[in-house]
Amino acid sequence: MKKLLNDPANLVAESLRGVERAHPELRVDHENRIVYRADAPVSGKVGLLSGGGSGHEPAHAGFVGPGMLDAVCAGEVFTSPVPDQMTEATKKIDGGAGVLHLVWNYTGDVMNFDMAAELAAAETDTEVQAVVMNDDVAVEDSLFTAGRRGTGAAIAVEKIVGAAAEQGRSLSELADLARRVNDSSRSMGMALTSCTVPAKGSPTFDLPDDEIEIGIGIHGEPGRRRVPLASAHDIAEMLVDPILADRDFTGGEGVFVFVNGMGATPNLELYLMYNEIAALLDKAGIVPVRTLVGPYVTSLDMAGCLVSITRFDDEMLRLWDAPVATSGLRWGM
Amino acid sequence: MADVDTDTLQRWLRVFAASVAEHKDELTALDAAIGDADHGANMDRGMQAVVDGLAATPADPAALFKQTGMTLVKSVGGASGPLYGTLFLRMAPATGGAASLDPETFAKALRAGLEGVVARGKAEVGEKTMVDALTPALDALDAALGSGQSLADALRAASAAADEGRDGTTPIVARKGRASYLGERSAGHQDPGATSAALLVAAAATAVAEQGAA
Predict the structure, then answer these.
(1) Residue B14 lies in a domain
(2) What is the ipTM of this complex?
(3) What sequence ranges are listed for the domain DhaK (chain A) (predicted)?
């Protein structure tokens, strides 16, 4: 393992020190591993809290700031944060209008956020609602699985709901909007390589040079199937076809297309992938109106990409275009 | 035979912590195959925190279980934190505040813990989870105590049943947790949660046998 480290055990803590130094507009509670807006709580505004395991940077701390999230909790690498962190974060960002938990659908995250909501209800009078984000078509949503994973849709959900929260909308309205954006989104990812969790020191799974994994998650977990390495053209079809088969993306204002790098894939390749994806969408009569290409929800040093498509209505489009000032996304201010 | 006192319960936790530390790499390797390669490290961190807190532990079993559960919820993360944490948190009220636990009360507390795990994780037997080790273990414990065996012997039977349940997870297609994302590909791998749960039952058998021998 060759990584920029002092001690794997201190990786998350030391990285949060760096976040604090690099971004004076953010505050970091090191004891509870919470990154939050310096101006929190914003009076009268619903607080938006998300978070999850570390290793997905710039998710999650990269999306804290005006126009997006109020706070995130950081867990160990690929491990959900714990209820105490979430309860403390909920208190920090409660501006009197309640707090919305935006939860990525993973068993541990859902259980910990559930326990946090129970604790918050017992300890405070803050009103808390939670919306679980689950957009990954690689997983069948059935009794036989933990349900679809939350992957790329979170960027659209957090950005759009963040903009709506700045307008002073109510907790229930924001929860409904979050569900609507999530329901309008579908994603599918693939890996060229595995990734190395520093505490383990070796790749999570073995992937031969001539094979790829289709339908991966964002934690180095293996995917649904393994296939021989194919051209970018063919890989784009393997990702886009199941997305389009799962939902109707025509109509509305068009779609938001997000081509996410998994951590070790250069943008040069991601834009090549976007070229392939745009051609497939064009053939299907689907019109991209907004795009995002780059590494935003990574899986440590995994190579590969994840495609996420959201059908935008006019409200979502307006809210997507609204100003945002985070280290991960920044425009209009 | 003697009731289970807090010394024995603390020994149970220490033996479990040592066992998790010893099997840390194995648990992580099992998790790497069908999950996300962190079960060993997370459980080890959590149980070390539990052991570190033992010095300051109040004297009765309920307080010990509550402290253990809260520590695990705080320090483990992932799904294992809420699940193991809930197990101990639910054991606390089931002791009825007794200063030491007779075998039936200990078994009843473990059963309450398992019910908490099932409720939190919404898992049933046969879905490739820790429930697959704990359920047969507690069934065997109840049966052995019902037939008049000593707690030490009954826990040995429970431990054997947990090991069998753990081994039985290998062919199962996972329906819960990250392993379920793999579908059919999860078959052929032993479940890491059932593996650590079997260590928990084995540690109880060891701790109680040592009390009997002391």
Answers:
(1) yes
(2) 0.78
(3) 7-331
